[in-house]
Amino acid sequence: MNFQIREAITSNVKGDSPEEFRETIQDAIARGDEHLLPGLGVFLEKWWQNSSTEEQSKFTETLSKVFQN
């Protein structure tokens, strides 16, 4: 992923409230546009880098369960 995309997305959401992040994520998912996936990827990357090993394990366990179907 191009670092300019990371920087642009980070700049666009800097200072957003938790509710604004929720709305952004829900909107991206509801639209289903593939061009919004890099933004969600940047969110995941930032979250991952700032999460504990326990949070990461819980997340990957949930993903594994979701994709077993």
From TrEMBL:
Nucleotide-binding keyword on record: no
Taxonomy, superkingdom: Bacteria
Subcellular location: Spore core
Pfam families: SSPI (PF14098)
Upregulating conditions: Expressed only in the forespore compartment of sporulating cells.
Key words, A-Z: Sporulation
One GO process term, biological-process aspect: sporulation resulting in formation of a cellular spore
Family: Belongs to the SspI family.
Protein name according to UniProt: Small, acid-soluble spore protein I
Organism of derivation: Ureibacillus thermophilus
Phylogenetic classification of the source organism: Bacteria, Bacillati, Bacillota, Bacilli, Bacillales
